[in-house]
Automatic annotation (TrEMBL):
<feature type="compositionally biased region" description="Low complexity">
    <location>
        <begin position="125"/>
        <end position="144"/>
    </location>
</feature>
<keyword id="KW-0378">Hydrolase</keyword>
<feature type="region of interest" description="Disordered">
    <location>
        <begin position="1"/>
        <end position="163"/>
    </location>
</feature>
<feature type="compositionally biased region" description="Low complexity">
    <location>
        <begin position="37"/>
        <end position="55"/>
    </location>
</feature>
<protein>
    <submittedName>
        <fullName>Gamma-glutamyl-gamma-aminobutyrate hydrolase</fullName>
    </submittedName>
</protein>
<dbReference type="GO" id="GO:0005829">
    <property type="term" value="C:cytosol"/>
</dbReference>
<dbReference type="InterPro" id="IPR029062">
    <property type="entry name" value="Class_I_gatase-like"/>
</dbReference>
<feature type="compositionally biased region" description="Pro residues">
    <location>
        <begin position="150"/>
        <end position="162"/>
    </location>
</feature>
<dbReference type="Pfam" id="PF07722">
    <property type="entry name" value="Peptidase_C26"/>
</dbReference>
<dbReference type="InterPro" id="IPR011697">
    <property type="entry name" value="Peptidase_C26"/>
</dbReference>
<dbReference type="InterPro" id="IPR044668">
    <property type="entry name" value="PuuD-like"/>
</dbReference>
<feature type="compositionally biased region" description="Basic and acidic residues">
    <location>
        <begin position="1"/>
        <end position="19"/>
    </location>
</feature>
<feature type="compositionally biased region" description="Low complexity">
    <location>
        <begin position="20"/>
        <end position="29"/>
    </location>
</feature>
<dbReference type="GO" id="GO:0016811">
    <property type="term" value="F:hydrolase activity, acting on carbon-nitrogen (but not peptide) bonds, in linear amides"/>
</dbReference>
<feature type="compositionally biased region" description="Low complexity">
    <location>
        <begin position="72"/>
        <end position="84"/>
    </location>
</feature>
Amino acid sequence: MSDNKSDHPEVPDGAHRPADAGPAGAPAPSSSPPAGSPSSSPSASPTGSPSGEAAQRASTDVPESASTVTPGAGEAAAASTAGELPKQAPAGTTPSIPISETAEAGKSAPAPAPHTEPASTGDTAASAAPQRPGAAPAGFGQAPDFTAHHPPPPGAIPPEPPRYLRASDSAWAVFGRIVVARARQMFDRAGQRITQRTLRIGVSARIFHPEPGAQGLRGKTLQYLEESIAHWVMSRDVIVFMIPTVGHQGMLHPSNIRLRDYAKHLDGLLLQGGADVSPQTYAEVSPRPEWPGDRVRDMYELELLHEFVESGKPVLGVCRGCQLINVAFGGTLYQDIASDVPTAGVHVSEHYDQHRHAVTFPQGSTFATMFPGRREAIVNSIHHQAVRNLGRDLTVEAVSAGDGLIEAVRYRRSPFVVGVQWHPEFHRAGGPELLDCTPLLDTFLRAARETRF
């Protein structure tokens, strides 16, 4: 197969030399294009020279014009111009180079510098000229002019100062507001910790006195807490503390802790049931020696009750606690219901907490509001003593349905000082028969939360 390409002619200085051109002055072998080639036809060039058409098409920078050049025409132009010097291009124009030569030369030669407009055309002409893809923007690489003034665009700066600034503000005024804000934040956090702290309810202790001549634990003073009363309070996520007695004489281990310290640090007091209140506490004499009551416990719980009342803390008394509240405010008791009130119903039996009777809530009482829709309820009954003469500033909250004996009292001068004659801790919450005393517990704990500080 014959080679149709010819050696490239020598070009003068200043013109592009093809990458595959031979040494200067070497004669190029001539070869005629094959018959039937488009470049051999006289009508291929309007000027009569095939090389003129190829050179003219190759000299333009427009991609569309370069794509119209046929390979045959470029080969014919290279063959016809072998041994001839190219024509000089007019001043200010780009030299005409065939496409095949520019493709080979572009691999090693740098791209020509982009054509720039004269300075007289101005910035408008430069910005209006189309920019080649990937070319740097106008003015790229120039040194910045730090003396030039570049004002912000309209509307970038508000016409007035921000609202959080005041025209009369001084450094001390701003500092004062900062201090006030910090102090308010500290008080808010402290108040939040106080209100969200778990309630602490104190329960008075039952006392087991030593038996004469007994040995072991029976010869010691025991203070204990009945399990059901503690679990009833703890059912509302409350911490329970049993409050021990505080002796002033004969202590093996002297201490400066007093009952007022418990009233200061606890949120409420619950007086649990147990032994009878001694008749000496309300200035009476016991008719029977087997009912002496517990004078030691009376003095301990009375002091504890008054400390919590003076601290503004709520108090809830159960059974004996209800009787003690009445005695604390000057009331008296029936020492034995069966003996003192022969017409009264049975309030205690060998069935203990299984014995029950009905109670009613007087119209307008707090219990009528606490248990809405309930004018009568069934409660347990485990007491042989009861309120006789009502103490000062006490109101009746519930009475026995059969005989009218007082079953619940409330002290009017405190946020919450209430006593009930039955044992609410023995009532199952939501039980179908006995009164659900959860509202009573919730009211007591709500008062404890509201009066804690």
